Amino acid sequence: MAGGGVVLVSSSIVRPVNSSQSGQTKIHLTPFDLSLLQFDYPQRGLLFSKPDSDFHLISRLKDSLALALEIYFPFAGRLVKTENLEDNTVSFFIDCDDSGARFLHCEAKSVSVSDFLQPDGSVPDFMKHFFPADDFKSCDGVSVPLLVIQVTEMKDGVFISFCYNHMVADGVSMWSFFHTWSKICSSGSGFNHKPLVLKGWFLEGIDYPIHIPVSETERSPPSRELSSVPITKEWIFHFSKKNILDLKAKANSEVASSSDMEVSSLQAISAHMWRSIIRHSGVSRERETHCKIVVDLRQRVNPPLEKDCFGNMVYLTSAITTAEELLDRGLGEAALQLRKLVSSQTNETCKRFAEDWVRNVKNLKSGIGSKVGDTIVVASSPRFEVYNKDFGWGKPIAIRAGPSNSISGKLSVFQGINEGSIDIQATLWGDVIVKLLADVEFLEHVTIA
Ligand SMILES: *[C@@H]1O[C@H](CO)[C@@H](O)[C@H](O)[C@H]1NC(C)=O
Ligand SMILES: *[C@@H]1O[C@H](CO)[C@@H](O)[C@H](O)[C@H]1NC(C)=O
User: β-pairing, 314-322 with 232-239?
Assistant: First the structure.
C-alpha cells in the first residue's frame, strides 16, 4: 500500500486565539535543550475509533487547538538563530511570536483500526505515513513550526499524531499540552487554565546565550537514510501487570544480598530488554554497550524547579558496561546499574553536565546515538497518562511512536491500555526481532497476544 493510502486533504497554520500572553517572550536555551539540536522531532500518535460525522471533527480539533496554543504559546513560536561573528559561533533562542503550529488533515479511507493493531505485535510499515514531518530536526525550527499535528481519518478510526521540537518541550510538557487540548475540545470551550510556568534560567554561573560552533549546527544526514545501515522494523512488546511484577521480583531477589536499593518496574523491564537485545545483536563480548535513559531534572536541581513547569527539562544519561558483563551478571545487576545511575543524578551532576557541555560543544551530529546496534535508548515513560486523552467521542485505543530518531535499540515505553501494564514499541533490525521472538528466556516475561 504505497503511502499507506494516506492522502493530504488540507494543510494550515493554527495560531493562538489571543496572543496577549506570549507577548514577545524569549525562551533561552540551556545545554540540556541544545544538546538535542540534531535530534529529530519526536513523533507520537493516538488511535481512536471514529466519531459521528455530526461531531465536526476537523473544525473542533482546530478551534480547540487555537485555544490550547494560547496557553501553551511556546509551541506557536519559532527558533531564532543569531550569529556571533566575533568567535564564528551561533546562538539560538525561542521567540514566542505566535507564528503558529501546522495542522494537517489527511485521509486513509482504506485503512481500518484492525490493520493498525496486528495481533503478533508487528507494526505495519504503512504506519509511518500517519505521522507528520518525519525529517524535521530541532535545528530546523528556524524555518518550520515547532509543533505539527496530523489528523488522519481512516475507514473506522482516527489517528491523531504530532511531532514537536524537543528543545521546546519534553514528554511531561508535551503530554500536559495534549491533555489540555483534549479537554478544551471535549468541553467545547476554553477553561480557566492557570498560566504556564516557564522554566526560566536556572543555571547560575553559565552565561546565555550559549555559543555553538557553526560546524556543529550544520544539518546531519537523516538518521534513516544511511545506506550502510540495515533496515529497522518496529514491534510492540506487551508487559502485563503480572509480567512486570515477576520481572521486578526476579531482579530484586538477585541483588537483595548485595544492595538495599529496590529497582523499579521500569528499571527491571529496561534491563530485560537491554540484555535480551544485546544477546542477539551480534555485538562482540568485549564491546561496550550503553543503555541511555531519560532523567527529568525538575526535582533534581537545587532549588528544584516547579514540578509541572513548561519546557525541556530532561537529558539522556548512559549506563555503560561490556556485553560480556551485561549478559553474565544477570537481570538484577543490570537493573541495579540503572537504579544507581538514576539516583546518582543530583544538582551536582546536572551542573557538571551543563558546564562541560558549554566548555566543549561537540558531537551534536551523532544525534540520539550509535547506529551499530550496541545502544539501547529508553524513551517516553509509562508515567505519561495516555488513555485519559478524550477529545469528546471516547478514549484512545492505542498509542504509537513514529519513525523519527530511529536506531536499532530505540524503545518507546508507554502505559498499556490495561491498568498496570506497559507496552514497549521497539525499533530493531529485523533479524534481532526474529531472534527475540524465538528466545524462550525473553518471552518468559513478555506477553505476545
Ligand atoms: C481574548 O481576549 C479578549 C480581550 O482580552 C477577551 O475578551 C476574549 O474573551 C479572549 N478570548 C479568548 C477565547 O480567550
Ligand atoms: C545547584 O547548582 C547550581 C548551578 O547549576 C548552583 O548555583 C547551586 O548553588 C546548586 N545548589 C546547591 C544547593 O548546591
Answer: unpaired
